[in-house]
Design a protein that fits this description.
D-Maltodextrin-Binding Protein, domain 2; globular; 2 domains; three-stranded antiparallel sheet; 12 strands; alpha/beta
């Protein structure tokens, strides 16, 4: 009898330990609450409003989490350290309009894509920086570690690339005249102009970001969470939730056909996953 009771106690203890670990979060899709690294200053995609992280990316992630049975806790961070934070377990998910480039796939795994976009250069009105050749040798600001950083440093001849930790810092420098151009996702640049109609700035050169849709980032080993994100996203596309949330934040930009209700989605092929 004593042996049987000991075995029962051991099973109950193990079960309690499993539940405790699951409730703590931080490492797997079965966790009650997952930490999400995001930004606070990049509307309409990701931003802080009245103390709450919101935007298209984050509201979509909240919907996916509800469908898949976990909760999310958003934590503000700088983009330059976001993917490393996901890879080393500081964050379970990265949510920050992250373009799923081949270089980044070496560090993390990506969910299927939930948005496509464009890179644009915000300039002073009348600067006439409408093509890559006109940008040659110019002083261009970027968010460190972003796709726009790669663009300015690798595709603009002789560009003087100035790196910032966030979007607000770059816009401030552009207004002060210390930058020739501020390279950002087009939706962020347009949103800033819409919110600041008196500022003498305009959109200059713009290029489509092809084959690298925005996606949520997870650690490569966390395939369970990756599958849950993809499952929740597919369901949100199928029932029109993606289209509804997108329309809430993007008033004048059409949603990709692949993401409209019944669409096939935007598949991402990861490396080594």
């Amino acid at each position: 009898m004593r042996s049987t009771l000991s075995k029962i106690a051991a099973v109950l203890t193990a079960g309690a330990l499993t539940l405790t670990l699951a409730a703590c979060g931080g490492s797997g899709a079965g966790s009650a609450t997952l930490r999400v690294g995001t930004l606070s200053d990049a509307p309409p995609s990701i931003y802080l409003e009245n103390g709450r992280f919101t935007g298209y990316d984050n509201e979509l992630l909240r919907d996916i989490a509800k469908r898949e049975g976990f909760e999310v806790e958003f934590v503000g961070t700088e983009f330059s350290g976001l993917l490393a934070g996901v890879a080393n377990g500081k964050f379970d998910i990265g949510s920050s309009t992250i373009s799923s480039t081949e270089a980044r796939k070496k560090t993390v795994a990506f969910s299927n894509g939930y948005n496509t976009g464009f890179t644009t250069v915000v300039t002073a009105k009348g600067a006439n920086l409408k093509d890559v050749a006109a940008l040659a040798g110019k002083r261009l600001g970027v968010v460190q570690g972003s796709v726009q950083d790669e663009f300015a440093g690798g595709k603009v001849a002789g560009a003087q690339v100035v790196r910032f930790p966030d979007y607000n810092a770059g816009f401030a420098q552009l207004k002060n005249g210390t930058l020739d151009g501020w390279v950002v996702p087009q939706d962020i640049g347009q949103k800033y102009l819409d919110q600041n109609p008196g500022v003498p700035l305009e959109l200059g050169y713009t290029v489509e970001d092809k084959d690298t849709p925005s996606a949520f980032a997870v650690a490569k080993k966390n395939t369970d969470l990756l599958n849950k994100l993809n499952d929740g996203l597919a369901k949100a596309i199928a029932d029109g939730t993606v289209a509804r949330i997108y329309a809430q934040f993007y008033k004048n930009t059409p949603l990709s056909k692949e993401l409209q209700q019944g669409g096939p989605g935007l598949p991402v092929k990861n490396v080594g996953v």
